[in-house]
Design a protein that fits this description.
single chain, 203 residues, mainly alpha, 12 helices, 0% strand
């Protein structure tokens, strides 16, 4: 029963806990999704992302119209640094819910980790379409363009980031670098002065 699975989990015997949840899912199909989610949760919490993939897929089989199920599957692949698999899962989530902002952010992060900065910037831009007030999306776009040595394109997203989050020292630091690369020393100096007050270690 459920308490037996919990006891196995507390003892660190996760495979036995999963076996109990699988039995419960067979006995009570109406609640199968909940039991498989429990298996997913215990593996994810323990950092056993490979083992978390099977219950994540079982949840998708039972509930294919929930974008979050694909998101959780994608996160496991992402944590395993299998970025192509992660992107595929996040895109499946977007097929269910095209305005699923967090899937776009994770796609951007997957491409960024693959050093595919052009695709990453495009995905982060989609994220900002749906979450324009989240400064992290604008910062990510700016950093992608900096990686591509396109400092002109990096400028506006970074300015937008510090506009939304004026205390973001990392964004100010990147903005200073962009201004230096654009030979705008006056603006770079202004940003530097701001940075000194925010985080002297970055100045």
């Amino acid at each position: 029963n459920f308490s037996l699975a919990e006891a196995y989990e507390k003892a660190g015997q996760l495979e036995k806990a999963e076996a109990v949840y699988n039995i419960l899912a067979e006995i009570n199909p109406a609640e199968a999704k909940t039991y498989h989610r429990q298996s997913f949760r215990i593996y994810d919490a323990a950092g056993k992302y490979e083992q978390a993939i099977t219950p994540a897929k079982k949840v998708i089989d039972l509930e294919p119209k929930n974008e979050m199920n694909y998101y959780y599957l994608g996160l496991m692949s992402f944590k395993l640094q299998r970025y192509d698999e992660a992107v595929a899962a996040f895109r499946q989530g977007l097929a269910v819910k095209p305005d699923f902002a967090h899937a776009w952010f994770q796609i951007g992060s997957a491409y960024f980790n693959k050093k595919n900065f052009k695709e990453a910037a495009a995905a982060y831009k989609k994220y900002t379409e749906f979450s324009p007030d989240d400064s992290s999306g604008w910062l990510s776009i700016g950093v992608c363009y900096m990686q591509l040595k396109d400092h002109e394109s990096a400028l506006e997203p970074l300015k937008k980031c510090v506009e939304l989050k004026p205390d973001n020292a990392v964004a100010w630091y990147n903005l200073a670098i962009v201004y230096i690369n654009l030979k705008d020393n006056y603006s770079a100096k202004e940003v530097y002065n701001r940075l000194v007050t925010l985080d002297p270690s970055l100045a």
